[in-house]
Design brief:
Layout: H1 3-10, E1 17-23, E2 29-35, H2 38-50, E3 54-58, E4 60-62, E5 73-84, H3 95-109, E6 115-118, E7 122-134, H4 135-151, H5 158-161, E8 167-169, E9 174-175, E10 182-183, E11 185-188, H6 195-201, E12 212-213, H7 219-226, E13 228-230, H8 232-240, H9 246-253, H10 260-270, H11 276-282, H12 292-301, H13 308-314, E14 336-338, E15 344-347, E16 358-361, E17 369-371, E18 377-382, E19 388-394, E20 398-406, E21 410-419, E22 423-430, H14 431-434, H15 437-446, H16 454-471, E23 475-476, E24 482-483, E25 491-493, E26 496-498, E27 503-505, H17 525-532, H18 541-552, E28 563-569, H19 577-585, H20 591-594, H21 602-612, E29 617-619, H22 627-639, E30 662-668, H23 672-677, H24 684-689, E31 690-694, H25 703-715, H26 721-730, H27 732-750, H28 757-775, H29 783-803, H30 808-818, E32 823-826, E33 856-859, E34 864-867, H31 869-878, H32 883-894, E35 897-901, E36 914-920
Parallel strand pairs: 20-23, 28-30, 28-31, 29-30, 32-33
Antiparallel strand pairs: 1-2, 1-3, 3-8, 4-5, 5-7, 6-7, 6-11, 7-12, 9-10, 13-14, 15-16, 17-18, 18-19, 20-21, 21-22, 24-25, 25-26, 26-27, 33-34, 34-36, 35-36
Helix pairs in contact: 10-11, 18-19, 18-28, 18-29, 27-28, 28-29
């Protein structure tokens, strides 16, 4: 084995390493050097060896480079022996004899084969450990090994085995002690040995909490230590009851006979107790060498509490009879307890980027749980002896904030998790998961709670729930975004509940959970404002108006209508219709997620309306929708309610949310009203519910400008909505007044009446939204120009609707033309024909017999129509025309009368008389 390989296995990583070099046994020179690298130590050893110096390395890794004393050793990674060879009866006569004795010892004790090195004039033996061990725990086992060697009559140097600072020779160097140098070489290479197993083999069944040195301590252990404090008074109480430390009792009660090392051992315990300074003098004042000054000096020099093994080494024979022997590492553990914490913590919220640094008031944990001074969940119980036991359940702050009631999935809880690097995270866990270990583990792990024994956190959570059920009513989970009430005091946006001067966590419900990611902001507010300023130019009033719907939608809560809609259409593409909606949606979140696409179903569109509630609803490309669907859309959208549906699993209606109050914008290649008119004759009602605007081409921006604008919108969104909402809440009275004033102004300028209430509402709240957004510093549009554009749009829509009015004559013409193939077209029968006497007087050759069903008769010579009521009523229903009103108009304006007639008169088909509406089609009010 090469020196570097051996040193790498024999020494612990880190800290400082020591090399001792002697010339002529030290008479010709002595060098003790420290290195922070094993390679440097090896290089120096070979350098001195080449100059015929004996070189040695220390087996311990040191805390600093000031001293090679054992007290400075940090950790050790081997147990070792020095078997000397010589004429002395305490030595082995020959090397083979020494090795054979070693083999017998290992076989008898069942120790693994060690690494054996020929030191030149002796044998060095190593059990190299798989992990480094701190000095105190190593020493406990080394002392046991030393006693075992004596017991088994091994002729080893006893001072070497338990000396953590011992130096031994390095393989591949030379021993220059004799006349001829002898090479130090490896005779046998053993494997790595587990510390616990080695301790067990030499007769130590339980090592007092060995402290193995890993790469780093765990967060769990760090949290445990950070929250601990120790009480010397508690240690001595347990001692008086026979459950403490007998060594400390001797030190405290027999001070005059206590040795200096034991006195210092006692002080090492007091120093790390909260009442230690006073206790140090109490257990010292009877010592012959006591002075307050000397005691304080000893006290200050102590670096850590002594372990049980150190107490036992300094005063043998007491510790093995202790009930705590092998169970605790040090007597100080007997006085250990967890410091309880304050309830206020200031940390950022993980998922609320719009929120400032929040001061969280952590509630008192339900008994028997409590919070440590530096966080974490602890369980306090009493054992059979009446002593307090405290157990760390989880090292970070974790607690239940409130109970929720979701009408679909039942009860749930909101939990809050404090993470040291991330901040504070809140999340929802359904109560059904609390009673299922696997489901609970999935929910907690998904939020970052990673522990092996999740059952303890389960029990802790259940205790929380039981306490909250006794003390507080469950809140209803918010199933919709937007305003929580018409008082406009709180607004739900994704996982945020926005109030006038605060932003808190909004737990998800079954309805809203899937859309939470859509409202996570990206980029920055300033970059968004710079981007949206692209629209701040003449000729882009339509696009500015659409952005205004994004702001104005949240103001709809302040008026009685549920929804007002705008449809933007043009047969040409590249006019920015969709981009304008993307810009409006970017106020609130990710436009890709918030914009409803052509491929989304009708049910999805209405469901989004319910869930958005106050957030604007943007629907792209309605071009391919059927006229009947668009008619339904116009009615249902403005009604604010989803269709009632039954549950599939029960005979009960599905839960619906509150009626939405929002602004909607849709786009298409054609007019929505024109599409509806292909389905029904007079879509005047739809036209009154949906404003329409024809988009025109603009020529004042390059393709690269528009491309950059679209790209920037995709990278900056979700920032403007929060400050806008908070501005509205903080100025709610003036905002309400601004809405009323704006509506009066718009109605006056555009000449609107109650019939135009949906148009009025859309323009009013869009323009007010822009006005408030400008006051809040979010946009800088020319609002007078946008208003002038909006008034022109309203007047165009008025003109279209006025032209849409259809007279009763036009309606009748439409019915006859659409049903022409089902009319019996025939000349009228005259009484004169009866005078021919040929039997053919009642027969007339029809111009056209009906193709299928007979809906009426039309006498071509006298232009008289006979209309059967049933087919007429069906046609009116399909066209959404009021049948009763239409019939009355026919009677009032065209002199129609209801009579019994034979529609097939004059043909070979003889049907009985039937009621028919007889209309004289020659009648014209204009001719009167």
């Amino acid at each position: 084995m090469h020196a570097s390989k051996f040193i790498g296995k024999a020494l612990a990583e880190g800290n400082f390493y020591c090399l001792l070099a002697l010339r002529n046994g030290g008479t010709g020179g002595r060098k003790q050097l420290f290195f922070d690298s094993q390679d440097e130590l090896i290089d120096a050893a070979h350098d001195y060896d080449s100059r015929e110096w004996d070189t040695f390395f220390a087996l311990g890794a040191f805390n600093d480079n000031k001293s090679r004393k054992a007290e400075n050793v940090d950790k050790v990674k081997a147990f070792f022996l020095d078997l000397d060879i010589g004429d002395d009866p305490k030595k082995y006569a020959t090397r083979p004899e020494a090795i054979q004795s070693l083999r017998s010892f290992c076989k008898q004790v069942k120790l693994p084969t060690p690494t054996i090195i020929d030191s030149g004039y002796g044998v060095h033996v190593y059990w190299l450990l798989s992990e480094a061990v701190v000095r105190d725990e190593w020493l406990h086992v080394a002392n046991a090994l030393k006693r075992l060697l004596v017991e088994k009559d091994m002729r080893s140097d006893p001072a070497v085995t338990s000396d953590s600072a011992r130096v031994l020779r390095i393989p591949s160097t030379h021993n220059y002690k004799g006349d001829a140098p002898k090479q130090v070489k490896v005779l046998n290479e053993g494997g790595l040995v587990d510390f616990d197993e080695f301790a067990r083999l030499i007769g130590i069944d339980t090592v007092p909490v060995p402290t193995k040195v890993g790469d780093s301590t765990s967060a769990f252990i760090d949290a445990l230590h950070a929250n601990k404090e120790n009480s010397f008074k508690d240690i001595m109480k347990k001692t008086a009851a026979g459950r403490g430390c007998e060594q400390l009792k001797i030190i405290a009660t027999d001070q005059s006979n206590t040795s200096e090392p034991m006195w210092r051992a006692g002080l090492s315990i007091t120093k790390f107790c909260t009442d230690g300074e006073k206790a140090a003098h109490v257990i010292s004042q009877g010592h012959p060498e006591y002075t307050a000054t000397s005691t304080k000096e000893k006290y200050e020099l102590i670096k850590g509490p002594y372990t049980c093994s150190t107490f036992d080494d300094n005063n043998e024979g007491i510790c093995p009879d202790c009930p705590n022997w092998g169970k605790v590492k040090s007597p100080i553990v007997l006085g250990s307890k967890i410091k309880e914490a304050e309830t206020v913590v200031q940390q950022p919220a993980v998922d609320l980027p719009n929120a400032p640094l929040i001061t969280y008031v952590i509630p008192t944990y339900p008994k028997p749980y409590f919070r440590g001074a530096n966080g974490g969940v602890y369980l306090r119980t009493s054992n059979a002896d009446g002593d307090t036991d405290e157990e760390l359940i989880y090292h970070n702050d974790l607690y239940v904030v409130r109970r929720l009631r979701d009408v679909e999935v039942g009860e749930a809880i909101v939990m809050r998790l404090h993470l040291p690097k991330d901040g504070v995270r809140e999340f929802t866990v359904p109560l059904t998961a609390i009673t299922s270990k696997e489901e609970f583990r999935k929910h907690m792990s998904a939020q970052g709670v990673a522990v092996i024994k999740m059952e303890k956190i389960m029990q802790y959570t259940t205790t929380w729930i039981n306490e909250l059920q006794e003390s507080a009513k469950a809140d209803e989970a918010h199933r919709q975004f937007g305003w929580t009430s018409d008082a406009c005091e709180a607004f739900i946006l994704g996982n945020q509940e926005i109030k006038a001067d605060s932003i808190t966590f909004n737990p998800p419900s079954t309805q809203t959970a899937g859309l939470f990611p859509a409202f996570e902001p990206k980029g920055s507010l300033q970059k968004w404002k710079d981007t949206i300023n692209f629209y701040n130019r003449d000729g882009m009033e339509l696009h500015q108006y659409v952005v205004g719907t994004g702001f104005g939608s949240v103001l709809m809560e302040m008026q009685p209508l549920h929804c007002a809609a705008l449809h933007v259409h043009s047969k040409d593409s590249g006019l920015g219709k969709t981009t304008a909606m993307i810009a409006g949606a970017s106020i609130w979140g990710n436009p890709d997620d918030l914009l409803i696409q052509e491929r989304d179903t009708y049910a999805t569109k209405m469901n989004r309306g319910e869930v958005y509630h106050s957030v604007p609803l943007y629907m792209d490309e309605l071009t391919n929708s059927h006229g009947s669907e668009l008619s339904d859309l116009a009615y249902q959208l403005t009604s604010g309610r989803q269709r009632g549906r039954m549950k599939g699993s029960a005979n009960e209606e599905r839960v619906r949310g509150r009626a939405w109050k929002l602004l909607a914008v849709t786009t298409g290649n054609t007019s929505l009203v024109e599409r509806v008119s292909m389905f029904k004759n007079m879509p005047k009602a739809e036209a009154q519910r949906v404003l329409e605007c024809h988009a025109t081409k603009f020529h004042f921006s390059t393709k690269s400008e528009t491309d950059n604008f679209s790209a920037d919108l995709k990278e900056n969104y979700g920032w403007a909505g929060v400050p806008f909402v908070q501005y509205v809440i903080q100025n709610i009275d003036s905002v309400r007044k601004a809405c009323l004033d704006m509506q009066a102004r718009i109605d006056n300028l555009a000449g609107l009446t109650a019939e135009n209430r949906f148009w009025s509402t859309h323009v009013t709240y869009t323009l007010t939204g822009l006005f408030i957004a400008k006051k809040a510093g979010l946009i800088d549009f020319d609002l007078k120009a946008v208003e002038a554009w909006a008034i022109k749009m309203l007047k165009r829509n008025k003109a279209v609707v006025e032209d849409m009015s259809m007279s009763v004559e036009e309606t009748l013409n439409n019915y006859i033309h659409e049903s022409w193939g089902n009319f019996l077209r025939i000349k009228s029968t005259q009484d004169l024909r009866k005078e021919q006497g040929n039997g053919l007087d009642d027969l007339v050759i029809p111009d056209l017999m009906p193709n299928r069903e007979l809906v009426g008769r039309y006498e071509t010579d006298i232009k008289r129509a006979y209309l059967l009521p049933k087919p007429l009523k069906e046609w009116c229903g399909e066209q959404q025309i009021n049948y009763t009103q239409f019939v009355q108009d026919l009677k009032d304006k065209m002199g129609a009368k209801m009579r019994k007639v034979r529609l097939t008169k004059g043909t070979l088909v003889q049907l009985p008389p039937a009621s028919a509406l007889v209309v004289d089609c020659t009648f014209s009010p204009d001719e009167e």
